[in-house]
Amino acid sequence: MEQYQANAAIFAARRGGTIGTDNTAVGALRWDHDTSKMSALAGVHLETGVPNSWAHYSQQRDLNPEENGRSWGSIQNFATRYGFEPWSHGATHGDQTTQAGYVLETVGARAELETNMPACVVEGFTIPGVGGTRWGGFDGKQLSDYTDLPVGRLVLDTYGCSMGRLTDPPWRSVLASRWSGEVGYAPLRH
Q1: Are the C-beta atoms of 45 and 83 separated by less than 8 Å?
Q2: Distance from CA of residue 129 to its chain's centroid?
Q3: 52, 102, 143, 188: which sits with the fewest CB atoms below 10 Å from its CB?
């Protein structure tokens, strides 16, 4: 838990501290990994002022080049030009059931993403929608997911912010005119 507190403090400091919303919910946009839609999303953050993150899995170009064919340099340039934060979405976007698999998807994915995009810091994590065991039942929705499950503890030790798995949220149609892919809001309270 101490490592997470340090990661969370760094995460907040890079953004100028916490915003103190007096326990009022605020939102952020989280875009899924499909880099073929990058041009359609250019300027969303600049136009709206709403924080945007883009979830990438570190092996996406190898495992799904049809959707994720853009170079890492192009993704990095997009992130720095348009204000999108790259977040980790794991390494393979697949289910894992072993400690080695959990390490690959959390610690390993962050290291690979930061190697691929050296001008970016990957501080956020969002679990990919996977079948099977869902990483041993990890949805990231409850504190116990992070404290009781091995993969949750790895997320706490590796990232400053995490977003749990959203299943059919009612707001997926929001911004559909921009992109018909997945969009998720990360409700935050402070």
Answers
A1: yes
A2: 12
A3: 143
Distance CA 12, CA 49 (A): 17
∠ CA 87-178-64, nearest 5°, is 50
Crossing angle of helices 109-116 and 72-82, rounded to 10°: 80
pLDDT score at 176: 38
- State residue 140's pLDDT score: 82
Torsion of CA 154, 125, 167, 186, to 10 degrees: 130
Residue 40 burial (CB count, 10 A): 14
The rounded average pLDDT for each run of 10 residues, N- to C-terminus, in the chain (190 residues) is: 77 71 68 78 76 88 84 91 90 93 96 96 87 84 88 92 63 38 37
Is the Cβ–Cβ distance between 27 and 185 less than 8 Å? yes
Using the CB atoms, write b or e for 107-123: b if 16+ within 10 Å.
bbbbebbbebbeebbbb
For 58, the token pair is 């570190």
* Confidence at residue 27, expressed as pLDDT on a 0 to 100 scale: 67
d(CA 74, CA 79): 9
**Residues β-bridged to residue 185:** 29
Would you state the pLDDT for residue 115? 97
Whether pTM > 0.85 for this model: the answer is no
